[in-house]
Amino acid sequence: MGWLYMQSLDGHSGPRQYLDAQFTCQRGDATMKVLRSALVRMRTYYAALEYARATTGEHSVVGIVCLVRYNPRDSEGYIFSYKDMEESMGPCESECPESTLDLLTPTDKPYAIEWRARCREDAAARRAIARKPSPRPGQTIILEQPLLFGNGRTLDRFEVIANPRSHRTVLYRSPKTGDSTASQASSAGHIN
């Protein structure tokens, strides 16, 4: 399916609320209801969608993924668009919150199984990154092996100082000379 474009959110307070309303409905004896949803970085919507059929008692909860574009100031007036997919279509996006994944019923669909596994792996990686401590100004870092900096110096001990040009990064300073250097390290143990 392609992208759907809208000029309004039909009175809903945001894209997530709009999509929740779109996926919650009743058609004949079938009921669809969003049990939980999340809008990640205002670009991807994830939902646990419950399907229930009254006549057969059939019940399942599947994952829904929507690519989202939201621009309330769009020059053409199309402020919101989305492209929806069901998990069995094998979406590339894999940042579905675990609380949503936990609501999904078992499936035998290979793409859905693979998508769920990728989402769990990505969630585990995000948790691992969140647990890593970030250097803060005032700290002294002591390494077992010296690091090679972009200016050609190698240090095994340096101080973390605030970057006056950016609140997002820090600078490192040699405790011996007081010289500072930039903050980003490569995987080869090199700091630029």
Explain the overall architecture.
It is a single chain. The chain is α+β, with helices and mostly antiparallel strands. It has two domains: 4-131, no CATH class; 140-182, no CATH class. The protein has three helices and eleven strands. It has helices spanning 15-23, 98-101, 110-131; strands at residues 4-6, 25-27, 30-40, 44-53, 59-70, 80-86, 140-149, 154-162, 170-173, 180-181, 190-191. A six-stranded antiparallel beta sheet has the order 1-6-5-4-3-2. Strands 10-9-8-7-11 form a five-stranded mixed beta sheet, with no helix packed on it. The longest helix is centred in the middle third of the chain and has 22 residues, at 110-131.
Briefly note the structural class of the backbone: alpha+beta
| Helix proportion | 10-25%
Q: Which series of helices and strands comes N to C?
A: EHEEEEEHHEEEEE
Instruction: Report the C-alpha radius of gyration, rounded.
Output: 24 Å
How far apart lie the N and C ends? 45 Å
**Mean pLDDT, nearest integer?**
89
Number of strands: 11
Main beta sheet: strand number and arrangement? 6 strands, antiparallel
